[in-house]
Amino acid sequence: MAHPVGEAGARGADVRSDCWVRLEIRDAGGVELSLRSKVMTMYGRAIREQAARGLAALGIAHAAVEMEDAGALPFVLDARLETAARRALGALAAEILPARRAAPTPSARDRFRRSRLYLPGNSPKLMLNAGLHRPDGVILDLEDAVAPAEKDAARCVVRNALRVVDFGGAELMVRINQGERGLADLDWIVPHGAQMVLIPKVEDPEAVRDVDARAAEIAAAAGRDEPVWLMPIIESSLGALRALAIATASPNVVALAIGLEDYTADLGVQRTAEGTESFWMRGQVINAARAAGIQPIDTVFSDVADQEGLRASVLEAKRLGFDGKGCIHPRQIAVVHEAFAPEAAEIEKARRIVLAFEEAASRGLGVVSLGSKMIDPPVVKRAQHTVQLALATGLLTENWREEATS
């Protein structure tokens, strides 16, 4: 009689920080574990004990398990073992949840989102040091970066990474799949600390409302009080035409992003460095975002080796009105932050406006003036944003008010 078998993970000479698991369910005989590990001498016993705990948590008492470890951290071992078990049994009533490392840095509606670093959801080795590069956000990707056959495995890895990995204060973002699969993805991420959900290929505001409602339902069941922010991604002509409706579909939408590879394919044209083929769409998304009071976020720059091209692309995005840019490699982050930083003249003007506003507020005045000019509230808000951005990029110090008056 054949027994159910499940396999999960990666193996081979060039695999790092991952493992491969083959699990065969048996009727009797307890657990038989065969382990090969690059760190057998130091951690062989600990890996065996962890596997035993994981099987017990899943309610599996009889199984033959093969494990091939390439230096995987415990959260990866747990994810691979659980995935193999799910593939063998088809469904599980239990899960292996690693203990939380620490609560993530709180997010906010208007926090900086200059850079967001895409990390394939089924590649844990790329997650481990992502926080060292200080992106404003990390995107654990369950959609395009994951092969269809590995979607289930990516869910386990992403869930565990949200609980365990220190991303250095970056906003914890997850790009879900489309439609029903995306709604099912939410069960794996909302209870475990995902702060932002990226919704791909949005063409209808109803899709945003579906994600929002499902996320709220899951959060309530999990006792989560923090909001789940949403970032719809516009990637088609229809989505661009409906950008304002999408941007205002939910109060939890805080940013609107674009994806130009799918958009240009939808148009039937080639994407160019000049970007003339996408200029209308980018303007449409920027204006929709500003009208809705949310952040417009530009697409990724796909040539990792072209740093000057990236800088030019970011400067253009800034001139158009975008607040952020997607990154597909850590080396792009510093360039993005530097290019989005305000110039000296912008900072000086913003300092003067903010100081004038604070002086007026301290005197109970409802009108702000700078010299002979009246300053409108939107101008004050923009100046405050510029000051905060200058602080974040080290162009102002925390005692800038004293420096301004000294």
Overview of this protein structure:
- The chain is α/β, with parallel strands linked by helices.
- It folds into 3 domains: 5-89, Ribosomal Protein S5, domain 2 (2-Layer Sandwich), CATH 3.30.230; 115-340, Alpha-Beta Barrel (TIM Barrel), CATH 3.20.20; 344-405, no CATH class.
- Helices cover 43% and strands 18% of the residues.
- It has 14 helices and 14 strands.
- The protein has helices at 40-58, 74-89, 151-164, 179-189, 205-222, 237-241, 243-247, 260-267, 279-292, 307-320, 331-340, 344-362, 377-392, 400-405; strands at residues 5-9, 19-25, 31-37, 63-69, 115-120, 137-141, 171-175, 196-199, 229-234, 255-258, 295-300, 324-327, 368-370, 373-375.
- It has an 8-stranded parallel beta barrel with strand order 5-6-7-8-9-10-11-12, surrounded by 5 helices.
- Helix 4 (179-189) links the parallel strand 7 and strand 8.
- Helix 4 (179-189) runs parallel beside helix 5, helix 10 runs parallel beside helix 11 (331-340) and helix 12 (344-362) crosses helix 13.
- The longest helix has 19 residues, at 40-58.
- The chain is elongated, with a radius of gyration of 24 Å.
- The model has no long low-confidence stretch (mean pLDDT 93).
